[in-house]
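Ticket #4471: complex job returned nothing on first submit. Input attached below:
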Amino acid sequence: MTPGKMIQSLSGWLVNVSIAMTALRTNLMRSILTMLGVMIGVFAVTLAVAVGAGAQSSVIQSVNALGSNMAIIVPEPDVGGGRRAFDRGRLTMRDARAIKKQIPGVLYLAPQLRSTIQIVAAGNNTTTNAVGSTADFAPVTNSAVQTGRFIDEADERSAARVVVIGSTVAEALFGNFDPVGQTVRINRIPFTIIGLLESKGSNFGSDNDDTAIMPISTMRQRFNGDTLSGPDDLNLLFVGFEDASSLVESKISITQLLSERYNVEEKGTNPFTVRTTEEFLEQTGEITAIFQIVLVAIASISLLVGGIGIMNIMLVSVTERTREIGLRMALGAKRSDIRNQFLVEAAVLCIIGGIVGLQLASAVGYAMTTYAGFLVPIGLSVALGAIIFSACIGLVFGGYPAVRASRLSPIEALRSE
Amino acid sequence: MTQKLVETRNLVKTYVLGSETINAVNGVSLSIERGEYVAIMGTSGSGKSTFMNMIGCLDTPSSGEVLIDAIPTSDRDSDALAKLRNEKIGFVFQQFNLLARTSALDNVAVPLIYAGQPSAKRQEKSAAKLTAMGLGDRLDHTPAKLSGGQQQRVAIARALVTEPLILLADEPTGALDSRTSDDIMAIFQELNAQGITIIVVTHESEVADHAKRRIEFRDGKVIEDRMVTNRLIAKTRKDTL
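Support reply: We reran it on our side without changes. The output follows.
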């Protein structure tokens, strides 16, 4: 195509746009109502995509809040349905030490006891999930203190009555005062607060800041009233690795090591569950992807309805303007000129509807992010995608009426009333 | 030198209405030369309009051949016919057929869009034609703001804007009063004097008497083809200019 021809065809399209705009303005109310259909469709799809993307990033965030490059070992078998007590493995400190010694790449070891406790201070009281662990708990779970310090090895050796609390607990007990250095009573035993954790926010309704951490030795001495059967047993073990690359191998080695230590071959089922953070990411990723697909599929129905509305109106428009089509053909319009005129008209309707729908979705997304705390990101790619997609809707649903218009016989079109 | 601008050879157009077959045009052979001013007469149903639509390349013959400027049209596809209409034929209709809510200038410019002319050129040519039709001060008027005669003059400007060889007018005065009809007749005679070939379909004898040649149709056939004697000359349209 020569540059001259290109300019000519470009100006031809521009003419089509101006013809389309005139036609749309002539039937303003009808154009707006038709646009409304596409607008609602694009609004719904855009919001669905954004909500899905938001859920995904929120899941990633929550897995990261759990910790990274980490294997989680739970002394429970990885089977569905109810669990019987005798299926349970006995995960002990000895196992933890063996893992650190025999598995390469282990950087941190955070054995844990978990219990629900009641904390009382200055006339306030609150119930929270307590974790008994070691100094390694902080790096392995990406936790840091905002003020004060985290528990250390000395606390652990002496089973010190010290506790590090999350911001939700601090607020419940002390309001906005700095709780570090204050004395609280946990199940009537006095403890000193040595640190306040940095906030990690909440994910899917579970508050990461509603927690209290104390040395594992303290927990074992003071609150060992629960179901564990031995003095060395653990509820949970987090193992932190140097990097993520060896996580899959490490998981296999850990499973193997534990199997050997507990003669799993004989028992048949492995009483331990070993998970890595990568697996969590993958699994939750799959779930959110399905969630997103379902959401977008439902929203697409409204876009489909909008598209059918476009087709309906374009068919009406072609019928109403049959005489105009005949005239244009008499004056030299080729079939393709007529077809393009109606295609552009449908596309313009859809693009305007799409842009308005996108604006609405952005506004609602912004409101959801700001007021509901639910992340709804509408990025440039989503915006561009929405507009291109709505133009395609116009071309697809405007296609049939446009082709029908172009196939009219000039004389029959001219004769029509 | 004479030159056949429009030639038909044994032209037939057949319509099937239920079980009946009607030959709207039944074997018409004639030729119209450059510079002629022809009136095609006949009662309604005589086949004159069907004939006109076929020589205007708006309708395709059932059999026979139409040649425009010595070019056969039967083997042309719809795009080629569109180009031919655009370049060689200007149409004027009884009901004007102007685009509503569109300025006179933009109405006249429509054929130039399909001729692929750039915007500036379209404006310039359209304005010139409208001015020649005495509407230079009404370029931005929409049809609703123009009288019937003015609307028909816009339509004539539109027909002429691509500098066609032939002007085809189908009952051009059918919707106009007699005084305005005279204006249009004067314009046609002036255009013919400038060399444009004019073919007018009409059932009014008075309109036909402004032409140089008159062809009468009945039942799809030409029953009379003669030169006009005592030709009427319309008053010059100085008052409307």
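The beta strands of chain B are 4-17, 20-33, 37-41, 63-68, 71-72, 89-92, 166-170, 197-201, 213-218, 221-227. Closing as resolved unless it happens again.
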